[in-house]
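User: tokens in, sequence out, please.
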């Protein structure tokens, strides 16, 4: 199981049908690695069809040649965007007119062949910076035999049932193996709180507290254990204060419910 905030070697896909051009990109990546200490995991594809065929959203950056024999880079990028809206795409082309439609697939930029190292280095650094910004907001998990990236904002809570972890999201449930403790450690700085032995709650989706339960934005009520309730209320209050009054439409409701529950918790604990 792979879980937790995306912190790993930068995963790069190079899609290029010209062996010499492909080798130049690989050499540049190795040079950047030597200069900065940044570690890469690199996959090479010689055609757009090859990467699209079994694409899973595990890549951080894609360097895509535009002109290829079977499926060009623009067509491949459109197919990739149907499954992955986070990967950073940089086109490499000998004809800049082909890259003008890069906005359609939210491409970061394009590099003109023959690519000089300075330009490549600048775009690679910009891409890595973007990956780091996005990485703090996503979760890489393995579900149903494939890896996928889930935005933390879409995660309601994570539940432990026996030896299975259920990630509850706004669009459904994902079942993965692992432990809740592992997710708790990996999400320690991401506004998640362990409310009891079964639940790791995303505070941004807590809209109220009723008795021993926290009420989620989807209407579910999740139990907060008595020993954890005081810490939960304190953490929730700190989160709401840091998030500001416009972070959720229901913040004021959550605050009033929390205050009422705080009084009762002193009697319960």
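Assistant: Sequence out:
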């Amino acid at each position: 199981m792979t879980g937790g905030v995306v912190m790993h070697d930068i995963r790069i896909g190079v899609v290029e049908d010209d062996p010499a051009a492909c080798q130049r990109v690989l050499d540049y990546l190795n040079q950047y690695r030597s200069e900065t200490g940044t570690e890469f995991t690199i996959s090479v594809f010689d055609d757009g069809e090859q990467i699209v065929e079994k694409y899973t959203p595990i890549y951080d950056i894609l360097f895509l040649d535009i002109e290829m024999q079977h499926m060009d880079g623009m067509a491949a990028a459109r197919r990739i965007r149907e499954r992955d809206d986070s990967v950073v795409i940089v086109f490499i082309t000998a004809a800049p007119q082909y890259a003008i439609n890069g906005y359609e697939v939210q491409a970061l930029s394009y590099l003109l062949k023959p690519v000089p190292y300075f330009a490549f280095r600048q775009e690679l650094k910009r891409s890595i910076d973007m990956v780091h910004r996005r990485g703090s907001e996503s979760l890489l998990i393995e579900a149903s035999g494939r890896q996928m990236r889930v935005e933390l904002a879409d995660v309601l809570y994570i539940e432990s049932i026996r030896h299975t972890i259920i990630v509850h999201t706004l669009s459904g449930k994902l079942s993965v193996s692992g432990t809740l403790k592992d997710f708790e450690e990996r999400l320690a700085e991401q506004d998640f709180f362990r409310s009891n032995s079964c639940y790791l709650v995303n505070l941004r989706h807590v809209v109220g507290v009723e008795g021993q339960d926290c009420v989620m934005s989807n209407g579910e009520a999740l139990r907060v254990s008595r020993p954890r309730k005081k810490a939960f209320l304190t953490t929730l209050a700190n989160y709401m204060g840091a998030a500001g009054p416009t972070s959720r439409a229901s913040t004021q409701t959550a605050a009033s419910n929390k205050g009422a529950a705080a009084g009762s918790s002193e009697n319960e604990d």
